[in-house]
Amino acid sequence: MPRKPRIWYPGAMYHITSRGNRHSNIFLDDKGRLRYLHHLEETKEKYFFELHSYCLMTNHVHLLLETMQHPISDIMHKLNSRYAISFNRRHDHDGHLFQGRYHSVLIESIEQFTATSRYIHLNPVKANIVKNPAEYKWSSYKAFQIGKPNMHVNPTQILHYFQTPQNYEEYVMRGSDHISHL
């Protein structure tokens, strides 16, 4: 039976998760994470999307992105295939790096939009890698603390709902009080 096509329209927002095949690591070192971010930027140049939040874990990634002119399937195909080729060449591996298709959830409300960003930023806390999301180097959380876009992410739209970066930080930290429920 063919897969159901993903819902797409210009301006659609998604929480994307891509996992390593059999939950294996997709990042073996910081150079791999930098390479992934490089491919993310290349993909953004070709397919014009807005990245609102991200987190690169060891065996999976979280992206909160908004499409403009191209379907999410084109964006994720380019990004995941480019990174997989790069990873396999660098580490002399063969075969699939990612476990099946990426998982996507269409974002349909402001509450879901902000809660997804919080979830993404709390992922390293939930995994017991850090106690505070600000300690994790491979997420967009620091751009939210500063309150300005950086090379990879634009936190402006999410921060708009909180008026200040400090209010967003409090929102995220309130979520960490209930981390076992995520």
UniProtKB/TrEMBL annotation:
Domain named Transposase IS200-like: which ranges?
Answer: 9-123
The record, for SUPFAM superfamilies, names: Transposase IS200-like
Q: Where do transmembrane segments lie in this chain?
A: none
Annotated InterPro entries: Transposase_17, Transposase_17_sf
* Protein name (Swiss-Prot/TrEMBL): Transposase
